[in-house]
Amino acid sequence: MTETHYQYIDGVWTDGDSTDEITVRDPAAPEDPIVAFSGASETQAEEAVSAAAAASDNWAATTPDDRDTILYEVAERIDANRDALAETLTREEGKPISSGRGEVSRAAEIFRFFASYARSATGETIPSSDPETLTYTVREPLGVVTLITPWNFPIATPSWKLATALATGNTVVLKPSSETPMIAKQLVELLAEVGVPNGVVNLVVGSGSTVGDALTTDERVDGVSFTGSTETGQHIAETVATRGIPIQTEMGGKNPQVVLPDADLEAAADAAISGAFGGCGQACTATSRLIVHEDVADELTAAVVERAEALSIGPGLDDPDIGPAVSAGENETNLEYIEVAEKEGATLQTGGGQPATPEAGYFVEPTVFTDVEPGMRIAQEEVFGPVLGVIEVADFDEAVRVANDVNYGLSASIFTTNMAKSRSFTKQIEAGVVKINGTTTGSHVQMPFGGMKASSSETQKELGQHAYEFYTHEKAIYRSDP
Ligand code: NAD
């Protein structure tokens, strides 16, 4: 296999030395691999942890100014290289190039936002019960943290974990998805270029089953932040549980958009299209259930179907509305779920298969089902593709009951002009992100992000003003002067 140097351990780029082969393909033209290389071995994962542990004290002792300066510089470099990074991202993940550029700019925004944490992730002074004693809290870095990330936002998700961890003085081992290692490598190259010291950031590209345990159960690892599927997240949480270290798992979703009869139906249809089919439905916050009041179900369905049929499908680099699924596996899963939905009695309104063009690539048409019952698999399980199920309900209470009747609880939205109903929805809905008259996807960097139920360990949220809490110990200090 050719030398590709995807592993970055203690400041040295090197090849993986396991027998696992990692093959990166353009999902719009998968016949010819872009690159193939050996994944990291368990020993290399241990070496990455050793490097992070050795660098930990010195990095924790850097001044906030030093860390802030470095992270701002990373943001500048990301912006300066936006087009090249976006092209890499789109080639290996498949999303439309304009979305790729948007995600790269978002990564720069994230580094800028969290750079300021270096100076502001503070403790508090708290009124003391004893006039002779000063009581306050301090925040200290955890030490070594392992960051495990999925492929669907392959620069934004690593960025928000890396930037928060580094700003608060932690050293890290990043394990990105094997579907999208190229963009992870380019991001780490930028970090190295701006002078992040050796060992502070390490990159391990390898199969989860080969390197996962070494990166999560090693006693020198002080925290694990994971984003990915619920199945993997729960496995990691169980594996790490006995060590008693902080673990954060942000996982899958089955996100509902509720539409009441008084809603602006045009806006609701636009949001459903963007939420269900943007990014080929491959967002953890993608809209997968459109829960509609029966009085407006036909009108809304017609508007959604009309819009879905107008969407262009094609290679991400051509900037269509919808790119391919990331991999052959995801593509098969999408098609399987479409078959299951039809077998269970849902009615296919549009889509339902691979488009006639493009011929190559992992493309699936934007698909809308009606007559979906809340108990069907299509209404319960995360599809992670461009498949939307319309569920009719008789009233607001039923809408909320159906919306909550899944294991997941990541994001949810309601379209209504009734403020009392929307307030009631925010109270009753079991979701970590709630939108009123907005799409289930998308979040602001300064707002906390994370789910409930099977979507999250609900330890601490990511993003937002307090994301630093996960990456720091809080100590309560009682100071009585002699
Ligand atoms: P995945 O769970 O298959 O993989 C996620 C990461 O875990 C990858 O880096 C993978 O290599 C690694 N991994 C796999 N087995 C492991 C093990 N035993 N030990 C350690 N690491 C291991 O998920 P995916 O297919 O990459 O991503 C899609 C999923 O991610 C969807 O379920 C989606 O909803 C979820 N997701 C959630 C959020 C969120 O914030 N809630 C954001 C994006 C994606």
Describe this structure as you would to a colleague.
With about 475 residues, the chain is an alpha/beta fold. It is about 40% helix and about 20% strand. The chain has helices at about 40-60, 65-80, 80-95, 95-115, 115-120, 155-165, 180-195, 210-215, 230-240, 265-275, 295-310, 330-345, 375-380, 395-405, 420-430, and strands spanning about 5-10, 10-15, 20-25, 35-40, 125, 135-140, 145-150, 170-175, 200-205, 225, 245-250, 255-260, 285-295, 345-350, 365-370, 385-395, 410, 410-415, 435, 450-455, 470-480. The chain has a 7-stranded mixed beta sheet with strand order 14-15-16-13-12-18-19, with helices on both faces. The chain has a 5-stranded parallel beta sheet with strand order 9-8-7-10-11, sandwiched between helices. Strands 5-6-21 form a 3-stranded antiparallel beta sheet, with no helix packed on it. The structure holds nicotinamide-adenine-dinucleotide. Nicotinamide-adenine-dinucleotide binds near residues 384 and 451.
Short description:
The protein is an alpha/beta fold and 482 residues long. The protein has helices spanning 42-60, 64-80, 82-93, 97-115, 117-120, 156-167, 181-193, 208-217, 230-241, 265-277, 297-309, 328-344, 377-380, 396-404, 419-428; strands at 7-9, 12-14, 21-24, 35-38, 125-126, 133-141, 144-148, 171-175, 201-203, 223-227, 247-250, 255-259, 287-293, 347-350, 367-370, 387-393, 408-409, 411-415, 433-436, 452-453, 472-480. Helix content is 38%, strand content 20%.
